[in-house]
Design goal:
The complex is a heterodimer of chains A (about 450) and B (about 270). Chain A is an alpha/beta fold and about 450 residues long. Chain A has helices at about 15-20, 30-35, 50-60, 60-65, 75-85, 90-95, 125-140, 150-160, 165-185, 190-200, 235-245, 250-280, 315, 345-350, 430-440; strands spanning about 5-10, 35-40, 40-45, 100-105, 120-125, 205-215, 290-295, 300, 305, 320-325, 340, 365-370, 380, 385, 395-400, 400-405, 410-415, 420. The N and C termini of chain A lie far apart (about 50 Å). The model of chain B has no long low-confidence stretch (mean pLDDT about 90). The chains are: A alpha/beta (about 450), B alpha/beta (about 270).
């Protein structure tokens, strides 16, 4: 067959359950589900953006591609690791003659972070890109301000007689807020800009378009970062608090966050419909492979916090996958689990004109690698939590079982049978078998297992 | 069959140090190595070398892939089982069940096989409708050795395979190094004991008092499979190998002393 156009859409931070439970009330997602195949045993290889995207683009788990937090090196090194990777998916499809475009609202997957290779166009857009742009501009113009906290820095400015700086910052703040209002931030996080960019650009067949939408990502219910611009206060703890609004969570805040999260499906549905209409108008819909997925899910205080990363709860690992195949083909879903790691081979096969159903595996894995050296502490309910989060976790999903081991202390973190928390002692033989798989998967890593 | 790298002036102690250095480097650079051995002389020596390095580093031994090609001596399974318990490694027995179940009267009818195996045969260029079910037949050998091996490498996501010079992974006339790349599937092959001669393997075996496959004691020089062209001899293989080696390095008395020592250790 002819090589199809390929659109890979990552709804950053979208849980499977949140999207699937609202499918019927959507228009675009429902259309894709009807014309395509809906997979419901899909597992993200990592619970946060960077390693999960690299897995999709390399076909490797985080422990294999190495782009994850390493506890012996600063967090920033993760981006050096991306840049050192051999060819990723976009480079290969580009070499195969595809026109390639990346439109994303997540700074972590921008060209500056090392994800730009292989794209004819790579555009980082939306509020986070703008906040970063303004932050860098302020830093360039104002320079480093002595002091650890915002208060100390403000005093430092007054003492040094640089009274013009606060005025300059207020001006930047005002411009940024105007932009955020236009986006309807924090509900809107740049999806409309991405769609506008795509539908407004001229891209020839065959094309590979990667889009990352941030609407499901926190923050949900604050005007962050209106309260402070991080340039004046480089204290990352405070910046993180302001940006993500995750301190001192009241019941109302939690509820509002959940509503904001749920509502992202409707916002995204509306934007996606514009894309599908565009494809239909241009007679591209039929022969385009459209993939809707996410890089990880989100905890909305069902377990630990509002956010993702660090843990391997189903809320964080189970992600959506809807695939509309070219000519609206309906491939049968094989028994087992689908891993985002398979995205690499899946897209490469189609880019060669080889038809392939998204593969299912008998066992799939997910991994979390804890913190990097000197990384910002994560806030949970206003408390700075460091060491308890600094864990190495590995999960295996197989049949109706899920086992998560904390390799830092060799303890069973979670054992589920049919999705329900189950006492491991009642399933010793099974646990031993699952641990064998995990032990082989953990390879030569220093990862402890319980003696069982 | 590939051959070991000749290093006639290098002593066994030096060769062991090299093998250990290769293993340390492999453990440093590969995240998920697997071991491919059967219970033959070279395999047990390799396992012991890996066990030694793993213990020194305080790490687990990588898992062992044991390929059941359908023609092993029962003692081979017993040896692997015994060693896995004594040395605390995971032995993963893998086989091409589809092929092994389809053997009838020493032959394999291609139409009885799964699509996967039929595709592999087609790609190899084999066009007959039947295959002789013998490990001497290269197509059959590939089906029962390489196919399950490659499937396991993909299933368990091994990035490297530590093995012996004479493993089924080697291609005819392959130029071997301590480490080299294999493609389709993609993984690295690691041969720590590349410089070991047959005599070195036996010397190491006896020096370290390692287990010896019982079939060697019966006079077999190879224990990979039951059937085939193997001619059983009256004496175990090390007698001629170590005997020659002792004669080269010293007097006939040296040979007799060595044999006496081996008898005392229960190897003869």
């Amino acid at each position: 067959m002819l090589r199809p156009n390929i659109i890979l859409i990552v709804l950053d931070t979208m849980r499977q359950s949140t999207l699937y439970s609202q499918l019927e009330k959507t228009v675009s997602f429902r259309m894709l589900a009807q014309d395509g195949v809906v997979y419901d045993q899909v597992i993200a290889p990592s619970p946060w953006t960077v390693p999960s995207h690299v897995s999709m683009f390399t076909g490797k788990y985080a422990s294999e591609h190495g782009v994850h937090r390493h506890q012996d090196e600063p967090g920033i090194e993760i981006f050096t690791r991306i840049k050192k990777l051999k060819k990723m998916l976009p480079e290969i499809v580009h070499e195969r003659g595809y026109n390639t475009i990346s439109l994303h609202a997540n700074n972590f997957i921008s060209a500056a972070s090392g994800f730009g290779k292989g794209y004819d166009v790579s555009l980082n857009t939306g509020p986070f890109a703008e906040i970063e742009r303004v932050r860098l501009k302020i830093k360039e113009e104002v320079g480093e301000i002595p002091g650890q906290t915002g208060k100390e820095k403000a005093i430092g400015l007054i003492k040094s007689g640089r009274l013009g700086v606060p005025v300059k910052l207020m001006r930047y703040n005002a411009a940024l807020n105007k932009y955020l209002d236009k986006l309807n931030f924090p509900s809107g996080k740049g999806a409309d800009e991405i769609i506008e960019q795509f539908t407004g650009s001229t891209i020839n067949d065959p094309f590979f378009a990667f889009m990352n939408f941030m609407e499901a990502h926190e923050p949900y219910n604050r005007g962050a970062p209106r309260s402070s611009l991080t340039a004046i206060d480089d204290d990352s703890k405070r910046a993180s608090r302001d940006l993500f609004g995750i301190q001192n969570l009241s019941k109302e805040t939690i509820e509002a966050s959940r509503k904001g999260y749920e509502n992202s499906v409707i916002i995204l549905d509306k934007e996606l419909l514009k894309l599908l209409d565009f494809l239909k108008d241009k007679s591209l819909y039929e022969n385009t492979l459209i993939i809707i997925t996410s890089d990880h899910g989100q905890d909305l205080r069902e377990k630990k916090f509002i956010g993702h990363d660090k843990f391997l709860f189903d809320e964080l690992t189970r992600v959506p996958l809807i695939i509309k195949y070219p000519e609206n083909r309906k491939f049968e879903i094989a028994h087992g689990y689908q891993s985002l790691v398979s995205m690499y081979n899946f897209i490469l096969s189609w880019s060669e004109g080889k038809e392939l159903a998204y593969p299912s595996e008998p066992e799939v894995y997910s991994e979390s690698h804890g913190y990097s050296k000197g990384e910002i502490e994560r806030l949970t309910d206003g408390k700075l939590i460091d060491s308890p989060f600094n864990v190495q976790l590995k999960a295996i999903y197989t049949d109706s079982y899920k086992l998560v081991i904390d390799g830092t202390n060799g303890k069973i973190e979670e054992f589920l049978v049919d999705g329900k928390e189950t006492e491991p002692g009642d399933h010793k033989e099974l646990i031993t078998e699952l641990m064998t798989h995990l032990e082989i998967f953990s390879g030569s890593a220093d990862f402890k297992f319980p003696s069982f | 069959m590939s051959e070991s790298r000749e290093e006639p002036l290098l002593g066994l102690e030096g060769k062991v140090e090299i093998a250990e250095a290769v293993l340390k480097d492999a453990f440093r650079n590969f995240i998920r190595p697997g071991i491919l051995v059967n219970a033959d002389r070279d395999g047990i020596v390799l396992l012991h070398l890996i066990k030694t390095v793993s213990e020194k580093q305080g790490s687990r031994m990588p898992p062992v892939l044991f390929i059941d090609h359908g023609d092993h001596f029962p003692e081979t399974f017993e040896e692997i089982d015994k060693l896995s318990k004594e040395w605390n490694f995971r032995a993963l027995t893998v086989k091409n069940e589809d092929v092994l179940n389809a053997i009838k009267e020493g032959k394999l009818s291609i139409e009885d096989l799964s699509d996967v195996n039929r595709d592999i045969i087609k790609k190899s260029g084999f066009s007959n409708s039947e295959i002789v079910a013998s490990l001497e037949n290269s197509t059959f050998s590939y089906l029962v050795k390489n196919v399950p091996l490659y499937a396991s490498i993909e299933k368990y996501r091994f990035d490297s395979i530590i093995t012996t010079i004479d493993s089924s992974i080697m291609e005819e006339d392959q130029e071997v190094h301590f480490m080299f790349a294999h493609s389709d599937p993609s993984f690295s092959i690691i041969i720590p004991a590349l410089t070991f001669t047959a005599a070195d393997h036996w010397k190491y075996t006896f020096d370290k008092k390692l287990s010896v496959h019982p079939k060697y004691k019966e006079g077999y020089s190879s224990v990979d499979h039951k059937s085939g062209n193997e001619t059983k001899k009256e004496k175990p293989p090390w007698e001629s190998i170590l005997g020659d080696s002792a004669e080269r390095s010293g007097s006939p008395e040296d040979k007799e002393k060595l044999m006496e020592k081996l008898r005392a250790l229960g190897y003869m």
